[in-house]
Fold these 2 entries.
Entry 1:
Amino acid sequence: MSAATTGTRPEDVFAGGLAVITGAGGGIGEGLARHAGGLGMKVVIADVDASNADRVARSLMEEGTQAWAVPTDVRDPDQVEALAEAAFAHGPVTLLVNNAGVEQLGLLWDTPLENWRRILDINVSGVFHGIRAFVPRMIASGGAAAIWNVASVAAVKTISGQAPYIASKHAVLGMTEALKVDLERVGAPIRVSAVLPAAVRTGIFDATGMVDTGDVASAEQERETMRRLLATGLTPAEAAAETFAQAAAGAFYLLPQPETGAGIMRERGEQLIARTAPVERRTAV
Ligand SMILES: NC(=O)c1ccc[n+]([C@@H]2O[C@H](COP(=O)([O-])OP(=O)(O)OC[C@H]3O[C@@H](n4cnc5c(N)ncnc54)[C@H](O)[C@@H]3O)[C@@H](O)[C@H]2O)c1
């Protein structure tokens, strides 16, 4: 079932608010930013790529959305703190999406140390820095707010050749579940969600910054396979529409592909209960 059918309209929940989205200079983050603007939110575009952040913010402004580009590297807690400061200067932030993330392909034991550190710094610490900078300000503002952390179906599904990414997304999901109960404990009116996309048509496998493992030709072949898989996925706009619809309906686990996502979660649940080991697979994101 799509949460879009449950009757809570995203515009009723989100219009008039202020969204901050990391990694919004492209891909899924850009899709979420455009959708947020379309719903009547003001949007802060945070991305390490300043020119892409600027491009998205300008294009949103041309469409009548109040938007600001704030170049931010989520690996740096001071930059994320400055992002929060800059965002709250425009009003209380009602939606934070910790979306920035990177991939890397290769066998676990072949993973260069710098790739391991980069993936954990961006995918895991980046989310933590967002939570650390924004939650106290959201609580102090006293209003209702939401935080979405973008994990992946790789948070519940294991495939070969992507171990650091899978480890990072399991960590994001665990951190998101723990954040939810921490906020409940202090009675903060902040709704937390984990986003678990399957394939979305983005350039995640074209991003630079990772060092190739020894066998460059087979690394490129692997990337090509993943690019072909992503080409069969949702557009960022489709993923964003479904994500906002499910969030408006109050879901904790936001599945841009509801059927695929639910199937993967069911399989994971059954696997844990039956205590069967994962088997080698290479065809999921
Ligand atoms: N595309 C998919 O199929 C898919 C599936 C599941 C989960 N995801 C997740 O969705 C999120 C977005 O991925 P995408 O597919 O849109 O990738 P993408 O490469 O298209 O976009 C990622 C954006 O994050 C930015 N970024 C990278 N490092 C950053 C940093 N240190 N600080 C700030 N911004 C940084 C990039 O500049 C880029 O604009 C990631 O967390 C990814 O793991 C993607």
Note: The chain has one domain: 10-274.
Entry 2:
Amino acid sequence: MSDREEENLREHTFDGIREYDNPMPAWWTRTFWATFWFAILYVGYFHSKVGRDVVDEYDADMQAFYDKQTADLLALGEVDEPMLGTFIKNKNAMSEALAQFTKVCATCHKADATGDIGPNLTDAHWLGGNTLMDLYTVIKDGRNKMPPWGKKLRPDVVMKLAAYVGTLRGTNLPGKAPEGKPLAVPPVPEAKRD
Ligand code: HEC
């Protein structure tokens, strides 16, 4: 028995048997402590709301899905009622549209869309049609004193604005006196307001 092994022998004997102090290998203890600290950090991060929990992850995944769907639809280049409807479900698209509306449309329609130079977009009366496609066409091409925004704004922004105005239909906020003819709100295909 080497000196080192002798050193590592414990003092006590039992029935002539002596115990050898055989520590766990370093890789094992290191792994143990790594998992120990990992668990503490993990609980601290995920259970104290510092980090993203599964609900946040889910929301982020859904948002990524809607963004991708929007990009795919734009790539197809075909604008129709269901395609515009998908923007309504996309929170990013709706907040982008709201920001644009406040910036460029509010001058004539007011920030809450209750009308000023342009008509109230929340009432039940419409100068033209009120399907998402009708809204898209008037925003893109303009009509009378309504400027053609298709010349100034990105195509996807015009689509998002049409979808946004679509969410205002039937909200009936008091504002400028009704103009045009009364129309029921057409159903939004494949997408409902959240
Ligand atoms: C310079 C003023 C002006 C601005 C800015 C403006 N509009 Fe208009 N808008 C009008 C007028 C005026 C009409 C009525 C057009 C008509 O006589 O048919 C109108 C009509 C509309 C209609 C159709 C309403 C209906 O009853 O058929 C929609 C939808 C609309 N605007 C959306 C928008 C959006 C979205 C924007 C921002 C991108 C915008 N407008 C910016 C003046 C404006």
Note: The pocket of heme C is lined by residues 101, 104-105, 107-109, 117-119, 121, 126-128, 135, 138-139, 143-147, 149, 161, 165, 180 (CB under 6 Å).
